Amino acid sequence: MRALRFRALGRCLERLNGRFVTGLDLGTTASDMDQIRVETAYVTDTTGSLGAKDDFTADMTAYGVYIGIVTSLRHEGVAALQGISVAVQGLGKVGYALCRYLHAAGARLIVADVVPERVQRALVQFSGAISADPARIHAADCMVFAPCALGGVITPARGILYAPDYVLNAGGIISTACELQGAGPDLIRQKVAGIAGTLGKVYAEAARSDISTLEAADRLAEAILSTGQASQ
């Protein structure tokens, strides 16, 4: 039944004639992408591709989030992650990979997941990590909160620097787009690191125009889209 559903999705994508290309995301596998490939070429992360190997797409998403956290801390005058408490909500492919980057940089991890086995694995692998209730981790005593679960976690709050999610999460789509253009892992990682510059522009625009960082991100994105449309 699962295979048939992804085959049906492939037929829908084929009718869009390239206006939309799909790939791995929450709850899907390379095998699912293989089923889509039976019906259309407008799919990435199939078996044997760079994106599907060793969860590369998820790792690049996590790397982009890590870069965004470092950039945000520097914006707040914090030079390094060493000793900084970071709460990570969700230990799926992206959340767990993010923990690896953060732990390697010396961060103090607070982790949570609805699957207890994932939490135990993290506590064993990342020395010094502590666990929290998944429903309450947003209230943990930390400097950085990284929600890596389903959406709708962040609500309006005062005194918090918000790094817009679609800026930080761009690593995966950057990776996919670059792979489609024939880029290798080193160049892709370099491109994902460019999230730091994008986020810097968001913070600068927010300060200059006295608007929220989300409004600033939307404004910059809309400007890019309008420029692209004008050039067509």
Automatic annotation (TrEMBL):
Source organism superkingdom: Bacteria
Residue intervals of the Glutamate/phenylalanine/leucine/valine/L-tryptophan dehydrogenase C-terminal domain: 55-228
Family matches, as InterPro entries: Aminoacid_DH-like_N_sf (IPR046346), Glu/Leu/Phe/Val/Trp_DH_C (IPR006096), Glu/Phe/Leu/Val/Trp_DH_bac/arc (IPR016211), NAD(P)-bd_dom_sf (IPR036291)
Positions of transmembrane segments: none
PANTHER family on file: LEUCINE DEHYDROGENASE, VALINE DEHYDROGENASE
Family the entry assigns: Belongs to the Glu/Leu/Phe/Val dehydrogenases family.
Protein name: Glutamate/phenylalanine/leucine/valine/L-tryptophan dehydrogenase C-terminal domain-containing protein
Organism: Paenibacillus silvae
